[in-house]
Amino acid sequence: MRLLGLIHYFSIVAERTLRSCAPRSQLSEWFYWFRVDAEALCLIADQLKRARAFILLEDEAEAKMFTECSVYDAAYFFGDRQYHGMRKRWPRVLLTYLTRTGLELDATRWQEGCHNGFLEARKSQAGTFVPCSSTFDYV
To answer: H/E element holding 66?
Structure first.
């Protein structure tokens, strides 16, 4: 995912430039969220790549544990960014690819991590009240 790294670098430069020129503009705010999303997507892609590498370990129990942890962490960040509107700023193809990869590696941990990340983001945004039903969809 070198393309994500390049996009991340571009978003940092653009966001910092706009923040110094027009700190309270909508474009500056959009690039802030775009940069945060790019950082999260790089992290998610790295975690999923790491999880895929763990599958090749000789010790199956250890490989399963590492894979579950990596997939859950990636999904947690994915759910958090979904709550903050990542779907509006990024192509659906990329998000679907990351979701499909996470589901292939460990569907249970991916769904659990997405759900918990989404609920945590909602809880931190709205105080402590979290309704029982979630509006999160798994892309």
So the answer is: helix 60-83
